[in-house]
TrEMBL record:
Pathway: Metabolic intermediate biosynthesis; chorismate biosynthesis; chorismate from D-erythrose 4-phosphate and phosphoenolpyruvate: step 7/7. This is Chorismate synthase. One of its GO terms (molecular function) is FMN binding. It comes from Caproiciproducens galactitolivorans. Belongs to the chorismate synthase family. Pfam families: Chorismate_synt. InterPro entries: Chorismate_synth, Chorismate_synth_AroC_sf, Chorismate_synthase_CS. It is an enzyme of class 4 (lyase). It catalyses: 5-O-(1-carboxyvinyl)-3-phosphoshikimate = chorismate + phosphate. Its EC number is 4.2.3.5. Keywords: Amino-acid biosynthesis, Aromatic amino acid biosynthesis, FAD, Flavoprotein, FMN, Lyase, NADP.
Amino acid sequence: MSSAWGEKIKVSIFGESHGAAIGAVLDGLPAGEELDFEAVALQMSRRAPGKDPAATPRRESDLPKIVSGVLNGRTTGAPLCALIENTNTKSGDYENLQRVPRPGHADYPAFLRYGGFNDMRGGGHFSGRLTAPLVFAGAVCRQILQRRGIAIGSHVLFVADCRDTPFSPTDIPEDLLQRLASVPFPVIDREAEQKMRNTIEKARMAQDSVGGVVECALTGVPAGIGGPLFGGIEPVFSSILFGIPAVKGVEFGAGFGAAELYGSQNNDAYYFDGGTVKARTNNAGGILGGITTGMPIVFRAAFKPTPSIAREQDSVDLKTKENAKLRVHGRHDPCIVSRAAPVVEAAAAIALINLMTL
Ligand SMILES: Cc1cc2nc3c(=O)[nH]c(=O)nc-3n(C[C@H](O)[C@H](O)[C@H](O)COP(=O)(O)O)c2cc1C
Ligand SMILES: C=C(O[C@@H]1CC(C(=O)O)=C[C@@H](OP(=O)(O)O)[C@H]1O)C(=O)O
């Protein structure tokens, strides 16, 4: 298993959900960058489990312990390593799952791939818990980007069929992004939150789960970053976004909707705003030819419903080689999407910093 991503700034994620700790190593950070650890803790707490009725009840403080790479509050240029302890594991819930794998989770393919030697307690290295170190790495990268005028934010656009107001593709104020980062369930339209929460609770009560979509925006990104073919913004962002457990789709700008438009509708007409070239619309999501246009980068990541549901399901007993019934026990998110919003932002920060000249 290799869980490293990035070339210029390489992020390695290690650990398992029910092991002693999880963590991240960041290689290639510039030296001398001041790090605000309160801001890092804020990002970590946005994702942390056990804090919201729409989330798993597993409680973890998720305070990262810095092992290396920082001195007197600044990066030293050496690999930055952070450890996050696992303090609230309950591995008994997973005892039967290697024999009778959960539909929708990684249990069966991971058993085949690693010959049964992988730690499958709590989903092991496949767990959504591994997004905690990703958020740590993203929190470091976003501070470096922030200092260069770039802001990142997101909201829950959908939970099942409940929809929030989307971002305006051309005008995304920084105070909106800040407000979204300050609440546990980020939505633009507060009425949408209640509908979404009701839908999640209804699914949970029915021993079921729901999925949804996170919409993310990056503002202040200079024009001219990226490149054609495989090194462009879309392929680089997508490659890290699809590494987030349960992400099943990524679209930029008008995305799949662009396929239904005429060229005259889809093209974003340019105009001069003072000396700056801007576009009147932003179906491109701030990217043309894999290169930033200077308009906000806007993309969406779709999350499937949480696989571990309490309802009885059909599975197989890998030992007896017979069909079997499975009841999953344990503490699971009835919906992943609100906790995934800061994870999506973190992935975007890591992707962008890898494409920039700092
Ligand atoms: C923040 C976060 C929390 C998650 N919580 C759960 C959970 O409580 N229970 C669960 O079965 N899956 C959860 N998942 C999803 C699984 O980890 C994921 O579906 C599984 O590893 C299989 O990967 P795949 O869906 O990408 O194929 C979570 C994912 C994320 C990003
Ligand atoms: C612990 C976290 O989420 C976990 C993600 C997860 C999964 O299968 O992905 C399953 C659950 O693990 P456990 O059974 O140990 O409670 C979640 O609680 C976290 O996000 O920090």
